[in-house]
Design brief:
Elements lengths: L1 H21 L2 E7 L7 H12 L3 E7 L4 H13 L7 E5 L3 H6 L12 H5 L3 H5 L2 E2 L2 E2 L2 E13 H6 L8 H15 L5 E4 L6 H13 L16 H15 L13 H9 L3 E7 L3 H5 L9 E4 L13 E10 L6 H12 L1 H10 L19 H9 L2 E2 L3 H4 L3 H16 L5 H13 L8
Parallel strand pairs: 1-2, 1-3, 7-8, 10-11
Antiparallel strand pairs: 3-10, 4-5, 6-8, 6-9, 6-10
Helix pairs in contact: 9-10, 9-17, 10-18, 17-18
Length: about 425
């Protein structure tokens, strides 16, 4: 009898332990080790302390976008349930969502939770009215300027392209320095060229797709944007022809060598420009990208960054959503801003007293007027759209086509593979 009682107790304990063990959920998040810095292990640890029934594994994926994308595509093609959460470049959600690879999140997040994020950034992950990824951190292009030179000539930071051109002309004439240019940007035939054209385009009041959802590149705003870029180089001559070969770091180097008045490029340049050995360390400031006169409410900060999405084949979507909420909540974003200098995607974080007077506050104001590339609308066709735009913009910059012809040709080519409702 005693043996039977002990056996019953043993079996009950074993059954309880087995049930408890089976109740533990195990999920995997895939994100590069440099992408979110030291915040990834810190947040994983904090989350598991608050949620002891959920075990989180970290898949350290490559920080090179093309390499990580290839791995994701391989996993999705095999319909693998792991990883449960993936970090995605801003131009991927539209493609992944249309292929059915990532899950819609509207039913896993409340409307209030979704509304707190930068809405311009969230648009990049919104397909047919559904949100497929949550913004993790944001970056974008900004206007850097030589504050010492503007002060010398009595100028405030330019708000419009017309002011920037006028100020550049005056300063170049006054300085009489043949090595100095007024404006530098990245105009090599790369993705960044399309991003920069979008800054001019949206700053003129344009939209890649109009209110009816149809492509609107060949429009007065599109032509105006293209003409302005051509004129900066060939008419006003505030940039020299080397800009046509420049990638982001080339532009940064020229500005850092005190050879440019204005620089428009991504915010990764802040660190080298601010370094102790930088010739412009105490000479530059940051403001938003210009718009054209008459368009003060236009958005002109072309933004990028990373988001978190849930694998459509994951068996633990609710647990995955819970981890995403933890990674992207106010407190986590504030800590990330301080620890890893990552710009938050929740607008209210920039107003936190602990960030008062920081560079991040300036960037946050610029991100409020952000614009994203048309990847959500074009999905798997986005890369082709970008390639066409890069090629036609380059044709106009080299004056092999007029701005009007380049925009017409770009739109005609893109229309060929857009669905009927987009044409």
């Amino acid at each position: 009898m005693k043996i039977l009682k002990l056996l019953t107790i043993f079996l009950f304990a074993f059954q309880y332990a087995s049930t408890a063990f089976s109740d533990e959920t195990e999920i995997t998040i895939s994100i590069g080790p440099r992408g979110f810095g030291e915040m990834t292990p810190r947040l994983i640890e904090g989350f598991m302390e608050e949620n002891p029934h959920i075990k989180v594994n970290w898949q350290k994926i490559s920080d090179v976008p093309n390499e990580s994308r290839k791995l994701y595509v391989t996993n999705f093609t095999a319909e693998s349930s792991k990883p449960d959460i993936i970090s995605v470049d801003v131009i991927w959600p539209g493609d992944f969502a249309k292929r059915g690879w990532i899950a819609p999140l509207n039913d896993l997040f409340t409307k209030e939770e979704l509304n707190q994020y930068n809405q311009s950034f969230a648009e990049a992950a919104t397909v047919d009215g559904k949100l497929y990824a949550i913004p993790l951190y944001i970056d974008g292009t900004h206007l850097f300027y030589r504050a010492d030179l503007l002060e010398k000539y009595g100028f405030e930071a330019p708000k419009t392209w017309e002011e920037l051109i006028s100020q550049s002309t005056t300063i170049l004439e006054g300085e009489k320095n043949p090595d100095l240019v007024g404006f530098v940007n990245m105009w090599a035939k790369i993705e960044g060229l399309f991003m920069n054209w979008l800054t001019f385009f949206y700053g003129a009041g344009g939209k890649f797709f109009d209110e009816q959802g149809k492509i609107a590149v060949n429009s007065p705003e599109g032509i105006k944007a293209m003409q302005a870029m051509v004129d900066i180089l060939h008419k006003h001559k505030i940039a020299n022809e080397s800009i046509l070969t420049f990638k982001p770091n080339d532009a940064r180097v020229l500005f850092q060598q005190e050879r440019a008045v204005f620089l428009m490029v991504q915010d990764f340049v802040i660190s080298p420009l601010s370094a102790d050995d930088s010739p412009v360390k105490d000479k530059f400031k940051i403001t938003r990208n210009p718009y054209f006169e008459g368009n003060p409410n236009s958005h002109s900060t072309t933004i990028g960054g990373y988001l978190l999405a849930i694998n459509q084949y994951s068996e633990h979507k609710e647990a995955a959503a819970k981890l995403i909420k933890y990674f992207t909540k106010y407190e986590s974003q504030l800590e990330s801003a301080k620890v890893s200098n990552k710009a938050p995607t929740i607008n209210s974080v920039y107003q936190d007293p602990s960030l008062k007077g920081s560079v991040l506050q300036i960037l946050g104001a610029n991100y409020k007027v952000g614009v994203v590339r048309p990847s959500a609308e074009t999905g798997e066709r986005y890369n082709r759209v970008s390639q066409i735009m890069q090629a036609e913009i380059t044709e106009a910059l080299h004056q092999r086509k007029s701005p009007a012809q380049a925009m017409k040709d770009a739109e005609d080519q893109i229309k060929r593979f857009l669905p009927k409702e987009r044409r």
